[in-house]
Protein: Phosphopantothenoylcysteine decarboxylase
Amino acid sequence: MLQGRKILVGVCGSIAAYKSVFLVRLLVQAGAEVQVILTPAATGFVTPLTLGTLSKQPVLQGFLKDERAGEWHNHVHLGLWADALVVAPASANTLAHFANGLCDTLLDAVYLSARCPVFVAPAMDLDMYQHPATQGNLQRLRQYGNTVWNSPAGELASGLNGPGRMLEPEDIVQELKGFFQLKIEN
Structure:
């Protein structure tokens, strides 16, 4: 189901960013063409070298490729190229940006330009996840037609226990396979 699919993987600043390494690997193993976009905060958790090696593509981090040459990463092209945009982990900050049309990162611009289905895997601490602002943003994203995967409960990096964990990479891959299977059947 994922063979030949073009998947953009957005990675945000969250301790769960380490799971994006496994997600990219599983998507590539399933035959998908994967392009990773890191938010500035994500680089504190995972490296472009790791994700670029696994995706077999240079990792995109900002609007500009080469500032001196005026080369830029075309967010519109990326939004049209993809069969799906998967944001995993999706931080509270990025969720707020998406829900409110803020656009100060490449990932924000790609989201606002995307014509493909968007899937979001929230990951943050319990209090952040349960905050009414975050829940409102998640609801708004659903109203926009995005798929927001439920955040499983469990032990969080802070030591708290409850929802806020990123959906496991294997589960994300299964969700995507199911989505594309339904698309073929309909």
